[in-house]
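Tutorial handout. Part one gives the primary structure; part two gives the three-dimensional structure as tokens.
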Amino acid sequence: MRGAAEPDPKRAPILSDDGYIIEFHQVGAYVKVSAMDPATLTEVSIPVPASLPQHQAAQAAIRKLKFVLARRNGAAADGTAGERK
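Part two.
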């Protein structure tokens, strides 16, 4: 039996190669994938099917995080100057 102070290894955050913190939380048939940039404390979450491989789910969350960070810096995700509509 796991004590209250012990973390659940299934929900332990992982660190991506880019230095982002990734968390996975299964909710029914979906997994909530959260990606956080520790430098800016920016966090995004996306729902993905539970059948999607973990590395693909993490890549999708990191893409969204990079998009959000680029928008905050006034640039498009592809590195060009972004336009606000």
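Part three, for discussion. The longest helix spans residues 54-72. Helices lie at 54-72.
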